[in-house]
Amino acid sequence: MRVTILGSSLTARHFVKYLGNCHQSVQVSLWTFDEAEYPEFDNVSSCLRYHGMKNLPNALLAADVVVNLHECTDFSLLPNVQKLQQHNIEVVRSVLFHSNSPLVHLSTPFLQCSHRWPNVYEPERDPAVFQPQWPFPEYCSTKHEAEKLVKNSFNDCYIEKCANVRRR
Fold this sequence. Notes:
Layout: E1 2-6, H1 10-22, E2 27-32, H2 39-42, E3 47-51, H3 56-60, E4 65-68, H4 81-98, E5 103-106, H5 137-152, E6 157-160
Parallel strand pairs: 1-2, 1-4, 2-3, 4-5, 5-6
Helix pairs in contact: 4-5
């Protein structure tokens, strides 16, 4: 089985490490936007490495499943909207164009935020309902747009909105 993992986030690095340690029969194709070097990637013997938008189609070739853990987060007061769109929307658009494989897409629980407590437990609701309450509007709008692209694609897909977990 070939799994293509997109991204160099902490989640992506742990997932690559997990596959390398526990599932040696899985061939991993790893794509990162930049040429990132992390020690977690070195321990996976059957890992094919790709980086840059030009190599994204190569990373997706023959994938049985694609796991998109790539994103750009910018929670600043003046976020770089162009960078958010490039990473959070255009990468997803390119993945959907170049691949017919099932897709697991990481989104954000911020799309479900409301002023009500508890405020992130309504995953079935339309995120646009909460748009006036999004804590980081520019970031959330790009993640919402990416979700719409994934939902409207012909690929089998699963959109995950995982909350941050703190380890003690």
